[in-house]
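Notes from hallway chat w/ T.B., transcribed later so I don't forget. T.B. wanted the structure written out for a chain they're using in a teaching module, and asked if we could keep both sequence and structure tokens in one place. Agreed to drop them here.
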Amino acid sequence: QVQVVESGGDLVQPGGALRLSCAASGFSGFSLLYYCVAWFRQAPGKEREGVAVSGNDGTETNYLDSVKGRFTISRDNAKNMAYLQMDSLKPEDTADYYCAVHNNWGNRLCDFTPSKYDSWGQGTQVTVSS
């Protein structure tokens, strides 16, 4: 089982920036290199939505349309870490943000399908407000 821990959530003013971190760990010899990594978010009263996803080596990424150009997903597989850089934040970005991973030995295209992700963090809260 892989453990995932997010950090970095905070209260920020509109137009501000935050960087969320995701630390993954697991069995002896675990490497994030063989996993899809995605960030999801859930705002109060709304359904969970995929925000950003990264393929195994980080070269393939995809984003929710509303965050394209503002959010950037990255990863450091050597450190088993992933990140979500969020710029030009808007009040509608307010939500609990979750990092999730799933095994991708076949290096297939990673996507936002939540049911594929079997390891989730506890979430970190992002509030965008003046």
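Follow-up for T.B.: DSSP finds no helices and eleven strands in the chain. Might be a good example for the class.
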